[in-house]
Amino acid sequence: MGGDTFITPTKCDVPQGSSEMSFIEMTGATLEKIVADDELHHDDLSAAGVNGHTIVRVNRQGDIEVRRPSGWDVIGGLLGEFDERIRRETGLDWAE
After folding, report:
1. Which of 19, 40, 59, 93 is deepest in the core (most CB within 10 A)?
2. What is the pTM of this model?
3. Residue 85: which domain range?
């Protein structure tokens, strides 16, 4: 089931004039603690270039984005009740 939720990375650009999105940022190590069994797996994260020190962020829709040298790439998504899992594990709230 490991590759079932992997998405080919795409560029994430917010068009000018659109409203800002809210995110919670964390390290790849924290993301691994949050990801549920039916979501991305360690091999999926590794294939996307995510390690324990990688900077990642999740938006309110559950999209996982990884920081690249020139921007952010979507690498997958979280399902279900991820909001509480993220806030509990990071101690952070959503920020624009």
Report:
1. 40
2. 0.77
3. 21-90
Residue 42 belongs to some domain of the structure = yes
Q: What does the DSSP 8-state code read for residue 81?
A: S
Helix (H) or strand (E) holding 31: helix 28-34
Q: How many domains does the chain have?
A: 1
Q: Which residues contact 25 (CB under 8 A, 6 or more apart)?
A: 55, 56, 57, 92
CB 21 within 8 A of CB 54: no
Structure tokens at 25: 């940022």
| Bridge partners for 68 per DSSP | 71
Alpha helices of the chain — where are they, by DSSP H? 28-34, 42-47, 82-90
> Nearest Cα to 11, choosing from 62, 54, 69, 60?
69
